[in-house]
Amino acid sequence: MPLSLLAALALGAAPAPAPRPFTQQDLVTLRRLSSPRVSPDGRQVAYVLRSTDLEMNRGRTDLWLVNLDGTNGRQLTAHPDNDSDPVWAPDGKSLFFLSSRGGSSQVWRLPVDGGEPLAVTQLPLDVNSFALSRDGQQLAVALDVFPDCANLSCNTLRFAEAQKKKTTGRVYDQLFFRHWDTWRDGTRSHLFVVPVAGGTPVDVMKGMDADAPSKPFGGAEEFTFTPDGKGIVFAARDVGRAEAWSTDLDLFLAPIDGKAKPRKLTEKNRATDTSPVFSPDGKTLAYAAMSRPGYESDRYRIILRTWPGGQERVLAESWDHSASSLAWSRDGATLYTTANDVGQNPVFALDVASGDVRRLTQGGNADGAQPAADGQVVYALDDLDSPSDLYAVKADGTGARQLTQVNKDALAGLKFGAFEQFEFKGWNDETVRGYVVKPVDFDPKRQYPLAFLIHGGPQGSFGNHFHYRWNPQVYAGRGYVAVMIDFHGSTGYGQAFTDSIGGDWGGKPLEDLQKGLAAALQKYPFIHKEKRCALGGSYGGYMINWIAGNWPDGFQCLVNHDGNLDERMAYFDTEELWFPEYDHKGLPWENPQGYAKHNPVDHVAKWKTPMLVIHGGKDYRVVDTQGMSTFTVLQRKGIPSRFVYFPDENHWVLKPQNSIQWHDEVLGWLDRWTGR
Predict the structure, then answer these.
(1) What is the mean pLDDT of residues 661-667?
(2) 3-class secondary structure per residue, 501-526
(3) Closest by CA position to 495, among listed 275, 340, 362
C-alpha cells in the first residue's frame, strides 16, 4: 500500500481520489485568470478571475489581488454580478473597475485595504470600457450613443422611443448593417470624459460617425489620456461608407472639453494604427501599426512618436514579429510586448534607444506583460497542459517564478496528455511545425485513434496555448492522439510565411497538412493509420470542406464548425469585406477566379467522408446558410452526416452548457467513426 494512503488511513482521513483524465466538463469549469494590473509601487498585482456557474449557464468575474512575492493572495470582490477591468488609482490605495451590479455596467472604486466599493459613475447608459487620467481626476468612458445626439438625455429619450415602436423593420443606407453577432441600431461607441468627483460627461467625439474603441473586440487598450490630462488619444475607423472594406484605423487626438473636433494623427498611413501608450516621462507615444491597407494580418510594427512634436520612427524594423500589447518600463528605456514565435508566445523586451530585442520567457503563451518592482516583469502564462496563472521574471529573463495557482485543487485531480513540438518539410521543402499531444495514460505499445485539429484564421496558430474552445487535451483525455499543424499562412514564423496563403487557401496549407500527417504517422507509430478524424472551425471548417473533395481518402470522419462551402457566395454573406478582398485578391466580379480557384462547392461530387456540421445562428462572419448548405450536400449524396445548430451562439460557442454539448457531439462523432 502506498505510504500516502497509509498516512491518510492513520489520520482517519479519506484518501484523495486518484487523478482522472481531463474532460470537457473540466475545460468549462476551470477558473480563468486575465487582466493582470501591477500597482503603482510595483509590489501588488490585481487581476480578474472568472468562475463558471453551470446552473445559471454563465461565467462570473471577480477581482483578486496578490503580492509580487506571491503571498497574501486574496479575493477583493464577491458580488453575484460581474466585476472586471481593474485600474489602479495613482496613489495605489484603491482600484477602479467595471461592475454590472445594480443592473447597469458602471465604474466603481474599491479601497484595497478594506471597505465597500462605491459607484463612481451613475450614467443612464452602460459603460463598456474606461481609462483613468494620470492624476486620477478624470475618467474616459465608452458609451454606445447616437452620434447626432447633443447630450445623454437625447440618447435616453431616443432609446425609450425605440422601445415603444410597434414596427420591427430595420432600415440601412450603408454597410455595416450587422457585425460579428449584432445588428446595427444606429449607435456608435463614443468616448466621454467625466470627472471622478462627478460632473457632466463630455462627448469628445461629438458627431463623429465612428466607434472608439473599435467593434467588435476593441477595449481600453485603444484609448488613453495625454500625459497632461488635457486630451485623449484614441483609435477609430472614420472612413464613411468604406467602413466594411477598410482597415484604416487611425489615431486621433481630442481635447477633453470637447470644444474642438478630433485631429487625425496618422493621416499618412492607410492601414491600421492602434494601442497608444505614453512613456512615463510623457515625451513619447508608442503605438502598433500595420503598413498594408486592407490586410488584417499584416505585421504590427511598433512606432515611436515624439510628443507633442510628432516625429516618428519604427522600433526594431528588422524584428520579424507582430507585437501585441505594449507596456513601458518604469524608466522609459524598454518596451515590453508579446508576440507569436514558432509555436510559442513569449514576452519580449525592446530597447527603445537601440531597437535591440531580448526574449524574456521561453515556452507557453504569455499575455499582459508589464513592469513591476525591482526590475521584474509580471505576465500571465498558460501552455498546453496548464491554464493561465501569474508569473514574474527578472528583466534579464532569469528567475521566472509563479505567483498564483488559481486552479491548484482542480488540477491536482486531473491528468493531461504529454505534448511535444515536431517539424517536417512542407510546401516547397520549407520547414513546417506542429504539435502532438499524447493520450492520457499513454502506452507506447498501443495504437490510438487520431484527432487532427486544423486552426482557423487562416492567419492563426495552434501553438503551446491552453485554448478554451479548441483544446487538444479534451481529445487526449478521451483516448485520442491530437495533432495540430501550423501550415503556411500561420502566424509566428515570419511575415512571409503568414503572407504566403494569399490567393492560395487550398494549395500550400493542404499540402502542409498532408505532409504533416505523413510525418506524424512516421514519427509516432502509436497513431492508428486507419482511425483518423479531422476537425476544424472557421478557416479550419473551410479546410474540412476542401479536404472532403480534395483528400477524400484522408480520414474516416470530418467535423466542420462554422466553415464556408462556397467562397464566392461567402463574400456576399459576410460583413468584414476587407478579409476576402485581400485573401482572394480582389472583388468577386472583377477577379472571379480568385474565388473559384479553391472553392469547396465545386468539388462536392467527390465527397464521401462522414461529416458532422456545426453552426451558430448569430455567426455573421461565416453565415449559418453555409453550414446548412454543407449539410444539404451531405444528405442529398447519402453521406452519413449530422447537423448541430446553436441559434444563440456566434462564430464561437461560448455558453457553458452549449460548450459541453458541442464537445459531447464532437467526441461522440469521433467515437462512432473510429470505433473507439
Answers:
(1) 98
(2) CCCCCCCHHHHHHHHHHHHHHHHCCC
(3) 340
Q: With a cut of 70, say whether residue 643 has pLDDT above it.
A: yes
For residues 40 and 92, the answer to whether their CB atoms sit within 8 Å is yes
How far apart, in whole angstroms, are the C-alpha atoms of residue 79 and residue 56?
15
Strand order through the sheet with 83-88: 83-88, 94-99, 106-111, 118-119
pLDDT confidence of residue 425: 98
Packing angle of the helix pair 508-523, 539-550 (nearest 10 deg): 80
For β-strands 527-537 and 431-437, DSSP reports them as unpaired
| Residue 579 host element (H or E) | helix 578-583
What does the pLDDT look like over 111-141, one tens digit per residue? Answer: 999 889 999 999 999 999 999 999 999 999 9
Grid cell in block for residue 380: 500571465
Beta-bridge partner residues of 604: none
Three-point CA angle 261, 262, 267, nearest 5°: 125
Phi and psi, residue 163, nearest 5° = -65, -25
C-beta separation of 531 from 647 below 8 A: no
pLDDT surpasses 50 at 3: no
Find out whether 555 and 533 touch, Cβ atoms under 8 Å. Answer: yes
445 residue type, one letter: K
- Is-contact 224 190, C-beta < 8 A? no
Residue 12: band (very low, low, confident or very high) from pLDDT cuts 50, 70, 90? low
Contact 190, 154 (CB under 8 A): no
Q: What is the three-state SS of 378-400? A: EEEEEECCEEEEEEEEECCCCCC
The amino acid occupying position 576 is: E
Which cell is 440 given? 492520457
Q: Which residues pair with 535 in a beta bridge?
A: 453, 559
pLDDT at 16: 75
Considering only the top CATH level, what class is 415-674?
Answer: alpha beta
Amino acid identity of residue 431, one-letter, is: T
pLDDT for 15 equals 74
The predicted structure's pLDDT at residue 11: 57
User: How many Cβ atoms sit within 10 Å of the Cβ of residue 104?
Assistant: 16
User: 674 vs 141, 440, 529, 558, 660, CA distance in Å?
Assistant: 53, 18, 11, 11, 21
Sign of the Cα torsion 546, 547, 553, 559 reads negative
Q: DSSP letter string over 396-433?
A: TS---EE---TTHHHHHTEE---EEEEEEE-GGG-EEE
The whole-angstrom separation of Cα 111 and Cα 306 is 36
For residues 579-591, b (16+ Cβ closer than 10 Å) or e, as one string?
bbbbbbbeebeee
**Predicted local confidence at residue 1, as pLDDT:** 42
pLDDT exceeds cutoff 80 at 583: yes
Tell me: the pLDDT tens digits for 250-292? Answer: 999 999 999 999 999 999 999 999 999 999 999 999 999 999 9
3-class secondary structure, 348:
strand
The pLDDT value recorded for residue 10 is 54
- pLDDT for 97 beyond 90: yes
What phi and psi values does residue 593 have, to the nearest 5 degrees?
-65, -30
Question: Which of 68, 75, 96, 81 is CA-nearest to residue 33?
Answer: 75
Residue 404 CB-half CA count within 13 A: 30
Among positive and negative, which fits the CA dihedral 335, 318, 304, 191?
negative
CA distance 83 to 103: 12
Contact between residue 132 and residue 89 where contact means Cβ atoms under 8 Å apart: yes
- CB atoms inside a 10 Å sphere around CB 241: 11
Residue 183 DSSP one-character state: E
Average pLDDT taken over every residue of the chain:
96
Q: At 206, list the grid cell.
A: 461629438
